[in-house]
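Worked example

This section walks through a single chain of length 493. The input is the sequence exactly as stored; nothing has been trimmed or padded.
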Amino acid sequence: MTIDVIKNYIGGRSCAILGLGVSNLPLATLLCREGIRLFIYDKHTAAELGEDALALQRAGAIFRVCDKDFIGIEGELIFRSPGIRPDVKGIAEAVAGGAELTSEAELFLKLTPAVTYAVTGSDGKTTSTTLTGKFLTALCEREGLGHTFVGGNIGTPLLHRCGEMSECDNAVLELSSFQLMHVSDAPARVAITNVSPNHLDWHTDMEEYIRAKKNIIGERTERLVTNADCPETLSIALECGKREGLEIALFSSSKHSFGEIFGNLTPVGKALAIYENGGFICVCDGKREEKMLSLCDIMLPGKHNVENYMTAIGLTYGDVPPEIYTETARVFFGVEHRLELVRTLDGVRWYNSSIDSSPTRTAAALSALAGESIVLICGGYDKKIPYAPLARAICEHGGVHTVVLTGATGEKIMAEIEKYVARSEKPIDVKMIYESDFCAAVHQARASARKGDCALLSPASASFDAFKNFAQRGNVFKEIVNSWDVEIEDQER
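Given that input, the structure is written out below as tokens.
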């Protein structure tokens, strides 16, 4: 593997990495291997960070333990971890002194020769990104030309693999609002799945959060795929529709024709509508409607997963033939930690949806289980977002009979449910139990579940109050559920 493209960009400059997380570890390893002078700033020592960090230290990386302000950064090229704001005092001072600020994702978009696709939004990013990658991978295999790389916020950094890529390849990225706070090069095709309140413990306000999402769109963007049913993303489409050369693709799970979706919106460039009609996901350019995928072939439950397919089809339409969409849908059963069926025990189906870190995600999970009797496990780290919408989703579902609340947001969610019940004109019978400890909450859910129920972990909150990330939370949940003695044979998988 060659990294000449990266070395040429660095041009002999010293580098600084702020936060040695998942996204920066491969980059740090590469820089050390190439003999580039590297400073790593983290709140932990190399020893506390573990063997990977110690190996970097032995290879020549200089570690600096620092506070959140990063005062006195050494390094002419600074790589910011996604969770670190680009406007903190030390970074601003370093940039004012002549240093260049970038990130693993930003530099990848600048340097990769591959055709770039990217997905952001409050919900559905990972499934939409995964589907887009699967569609393009199948296309490459069919044509015997090029490869598809999938990464970004989905957990796989790609910058260190730039040297493997060519113009025949595709790169599909999931991008968070944290990553998009400072981006100068935009992907060729981009999707914004939706925008709802999220990460307001990190962003200064909702306006900044939306502005970060919009940063995914740039001069090089050829197609914008977004949600006609979401007021914020529809507004973005209205704004971007004025730009010549940008194709606007709007999807909707509530509207069923080009005219319904676009209405009075008349983009300067091309327009595509993606919608459901007659049991098929269809694409229409205003003149001709094409059937892309039968809903019967989609193995994932819920309207939100139909929207995820619409997003991925919107990104790849014109390149990927409909038969690839069908072949993929028939064998794709979802991404881990997203409505993942763990087991059936004593007639209760246990679902792990630990990825659900916001009220809208949990509402979508409940919608996917419409008609089911549910024990719901909610709560976690407080991102300072409102929980009234979650209370409404729980109370209006009709099948949620018990909510087991846990973590830092548990009592907040309980208070919102109580308010909703008190205001409701019709009786709502939802039992609420608070258990501060996550493991105790899972056991309490078992005690509350009845034969025929679904027990659903859908926290509507981040995991950082008790876990490293949502995946660890989901894995702990699965370990607990799989540890229970079987009294009735597991029947579903």
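What to look for: The first helix runs from residue 4 to 10.
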